[in-house]
Write a structure and sequence with these properties.
The complex is a heterodimer of chains A (432) and B (142). In chain A, the strands form seven sheets. In chain A, strands 10-11-12-13-17 form a five-stranded mixed beta sheet, with no helix packed on it. In chain A, strands 21, 22, 23, 24 and 25 form a five-stranded antiparallel beta sheet that branches. In chain A, strands 1-28-27-26 form a four-stranded antiparallel beta sheet, with no helix packed on it. Chain A is mainly beta. Chain A has a single domain (65-430), classed as 6 Propeller (Neuraminidase). Chain A starts with a helix and ends with a strand. In chain A, 8% of the residues lie in helices and 34% in strands. Chain A has three helices and 28 strands. Chain B is mainly alpha-helical and 142 residues long. Chain B has helices at 2-6, 15-41, 44-72, 80-103, 113-134. Chain B is elongated, with a radius of gyration of 17 Å. Chains A and B meet through helix 1 of A and helix 3, helix 4 and helix 5 of B.
Chain lengths: 432, 142
């Protein structure tokens, strides 16, 4: 009986879908702890507006009054995440990963369209070191620290060990202060799930005491369209013992945890997570959240807590009912890829909170993201709306000149932003 | 012998046209069966199969449609049957294309609309092929 009603309904759905595809501009995205979630919707075609790349020329990203932005490195090979070393040197992880095959005609077409909005430079698969020896703000040394890596992304330094999360393994270099080149090939700490690698980035941070490494492992699909068997060990954050490589899932149901950071005051793990697409312009919010040990965050069964995603079959109502609602919406489709906690040296207005690098949307008629925002914190929790910190990546002329990825706070008072479209490292400093 | 093939009777379609038309039936039918399999066991590979089968059917169907429209411009081949055939084939193709877009939705989002459309399109493809080929029967084979 239910089946036959579904059949009747579907004929109606087919007709209405064609009109749904022609609806007007979406309302702006919602931020904060309690975003309004509209009904999910998708026309016959997903809304796709990808970046239209252009050169920077004389232009620069815009920063707040009282701040200066400079390009400290150019000509890189797809910079993603950065790490500021104790002596002030900066390490840049460069590369492009993933080897997900096209399964449907849609994958071929959408893959081609999306590739127009990214760089065509070959994957660096290396770490580049930048050094400003005289402290004048110009990083005069730009040299390869390590190469022949496999799409490195997450970086962490614990004492004299430099950890690098490749797309297929966590590896370790010995590091001593002032080194400009790795002493040799890295040692593998543990393999990381890498089959298909639809979401290939392996974000990483170290626990406050340095005993554990947390590694984000994204899902192998948007919403299980590669089958449930492809999702074993995916959409999880692993806790890895830095000494032994032993690991366990620390949190699950996190669709694509693209950056991790430890809150300095509380030692709490925080993450930015990219949520699912093709449910409409204001679904599903990408989010910033504290990560609870053993917590389940919904993917794929539900989103933003317990909102069931009917695209997943068979469903799991028990899992959906147990899903944790994230702490803070960054807005749907912004594609948050960078996260770091600020320091007082960044200036009074930006002293307490997080910087978030937003790569920018593809699944929205009005693009969002394409900037670095600052989310203020109070008492270890987000408090207030996000503030633009670095913008102008998407110009008013509709051209995209850069796309922010990793953001790293230099404790001496600077924000390092990796831009994987113009292959540049930007440095934002408060004016003296 | 080739000259026999070229002198097509009124209402009969060219063998190349016939081959293209015939290709739509097994492909749309295969898509329907794949959709049915996906709807019962949730194995995603069946929906991948359905997507490619529909894409293939649309290629064959588009060529057959072009042939049908060209035939309409030949007075000796344009009769009521040819016009009805072209309309049914056009409907098959348009709904088939919409079905391809619905199959491009991720995972279960293509259901149930995808399965329903696959049934309609498979039936329409059979009807179009039946009408298209019925011209071959008039007077029997030469």
């Amino acid at each position: 009986m239910k089946r036959s009603r579904q059949f009747l309904l579907s004929a109606f759905i087919v007709a209405t879908l064609m009109f749904a595809a022609c609806s007007g501009e979406p309302p702006p995205p919602e931020y904060g702890p309690n975003p309004t979630l509209p009904e999910n919707q998708r026309g016959l075609l997903p809304r796709m507006v990808v970046a239209n790349p252009a050169e920077w020329g004389d232009r620069r990203p815009t920063v707040p009054q009282g701040y200066t932005i400079t390009a400290i490195a150019t000509g890189l090979r797809i910079p993603r995440q950065t790490l500021v070393l104790p002596n002030g040197d900066i390490l840049v992880a460069e590369g492009r990963g993933g080897n997900a095959p096209s399964l449907k005609p849609k994958d071929v077409i959408a893959g081609y369209i999306k590739s127009k909005g990214t760089t065509s430079v070959a994957s660096g698969n290396r770490l580049t070191l930048l050094r400003d020896a005289d402290g004048d703000g110009a990083y005069e040394l730009q040299t390869v620290f390590a190469e022949n890596l496999n799409a490195p992304y997450g970086l962490a330094l614990v004492d004299d060990k430099l950890y690098v999360a490749n797309q297929d393994a966590l590896v370790r270099f010995d590091y001593r202060d002032g080194q400009t080149q790795a002493g040799g090939a890295p040692v593998k700490v543990t393999d990381l799930p890498s089959e298909i690698n639809h979401h290939w980035t392996k974000a990483m941070t170290a626990s406050a005491n340095g005993r554990f490494l947390y590694v984000g492992i994204g899902s192998n699909s948007n919403i299980t369209e590669r089958g449930m068997t492809a999702e074993v060990d995916r959409a999880v954050i692993w806790q890895i013992d830095a000494e032994t490589g032993m690991h366990k899932p620390y949190a699950t149901g996190v669709r694509n945890p693209t950056a991790l950071a430890i809150h300095p005051g509380t030692d709490q793990l925080w993450a930015v997570v990219n949520e699912r697409d093709e449910l409409g312009p204001n679904l599903v919010p990408d989010y910033l959240t504290s990560i609870r040990e053993g917590g389940f965050y919904g993917w794929p069964y539900s989103y933003w807590g317990q909102n069931v995603d009917s695209r997943v079959m068979p469903q799991d109502p028990e899992k959906a009912a147990a899903a944790i609602t994230p702490d803070y919406s960054l807005g749907s489709h912004v594609a948050a890829l960078g996260l770091d906690f600020s320091v007082p040296e960044m200036g009074a207005q930006f002293a307490e909170g997080v910087f978030v690098g937003e790569h920018g949307s593809w699944n929205r008629s009005e693009p969002v993201g394409y900037k670095v925002v600052f989310v203020p914190f109070r008492n270890g929790r987000p408090a207030g709306d996000p503030v633009d910190f670095v913008a102008g990546f998407l110009g008013e002329d509709g051209k995209t000149r850069g796309r922010p990825v990793g953001v790293t706070v230099d404790p001496r008072g600077a924000l390092i932003v990796a831009d994987d479209l113009s292959n540049t490292i930007w440095r934002v400093t408060p004016n003296p | 012998m080739a000259s026999i093939v070229d002198r097509v009777r009124p209402g009969a379609i060219h063998p190349f046209h016939a081959a293209m038309l015939a290709g739509t039936v097994p492909l749309f039918l295969g898509a329907l069966l794949s959709d049915y399999a996906y709807s019962t066991n949730y194995q995603i590979q069946w929906s991948n199969f359905a997507s490619w089968l529909i894409a293939g059917a649309l290629v064959f169907g588009a060529i057959a449609l072009v042939c049908a429209v060209i035939d309409l411009f030949h007075a000796d081949r344009r009769d009521g049957r040819a016009i009805v055939y072209t309309i049914v084939l056009l409907a098959t193709w348009v709904l088939g294309f919409i079905n391809a877009l619905i199959h491009a939705k991720d995972a279960w989002a293509m259901m149930p609309a995808g399965l329903v459309l696959s049934i309609i399109v498979a039936v329409l493809a059979c009807v179009a092929t039946w009408i298209g080929f019925s011209g071959l029967r008039a007077g029997g084979p030469r």
